[in-house]
Amino acid sequence: MSRLDSFIRRLTAQRDILNHISETMMDGLEAGPILEIGLGNGRTYSHLREHFPGHRIIAFDRAIGSHASSTPEPGDLVIGEIRETAQAYVSAGAALVHADIGTGYPDKDAVTLTWLPQLAAASLRSGGVAVSGLPLEHPDLAPQPLPASVREGRYFIYRKR
Ligand SMILES: C[S@@+](CC[C@H](N)C(=O)[O-])C[C@H]1O[C@@H](n2cnc3c(N)ncnc32)[C@H](O)[C@@H]1O
After folding, report:
1. Which ligand 1 atom sits closest to the C-alpha of 61?
2. Which of 117, 133, 151, 159 could be 102's S-S partner, Cβ–Cβ 3.0 to 4.6 Å?
3. Model confidence pLDDT, tens digit, residues 3-49
4. pTM for the model
5. In the CATH hierarchy, which fold is given to the domain comprising 3-160?
6. What's the pLDDT band for 146 if we cut at 50, 70, 90?
7. What separation in angstroms does the CA of 148 have from each of 1, 51, 97, 131?
8. What's the gap in Å between 102 CA and the centre of ligand 1?
9. Which residues line ligand 1 (CB under 6 A)?
10. Is 70 left (phi over 0), alpha (psi -120 to 50) or beta?
11. pLDDT at site 108
12. Measured from the CA of 14, which atom of ligand 1 is nearest?
């Protein structure tokens, strides 16, 4: 598969999953912020704002690279290495954590996976939802079914036990 096709499928999966979650998985999760792990260009942040109104969205990245229209207010933007900066949010009681920080390099992603699952689990409130492009293996995160349009293994959904 070309990298273009792979990119399109990743973003389609991301959008379909976030829509699915907003429509079917947010009952009881009206309170609690959303953590956007990897703001990037801010396209996903823009989608989160539209589909999860009423939630504070806190976005993380090592540098600002987002479009001006999709850049959070300074109080909701955390710049630096997420492994370190997000420690301040481990008790945030997040309703939703979305992480799009896979690189396609197995060695780099393996390093990320030494800390990302624990961070996601600790940041979520009970019943909160984690969505990730990398698998999050953690005893507190129960894997959830994907929408029919998303191939198994392309993207991952979990609910905190
Ligand atoms: C694939 S992009 C995210 C794209 C985003 N979903 C969008 O809508 O544009 C991943 C982003 O995460 C950031 N990132 C990845 N790993 C990071 C880390 N360990 N600490 C800080 N930022 C990180 C990168 O700088 C990059 O901007």
Report:
1. 22
2. 133
3. 999 999 999 999 999 999 999 999 999 999 999 999 999 999 999 99
4. 0.97
5. Rossmann fold (3.40.50)
6. very high
7. 21, 20, 21, 16
8. 8
9. 38, 40-44, 61-62, 65, 81-83, 100-101
10. alpha
11. 98
12. 6
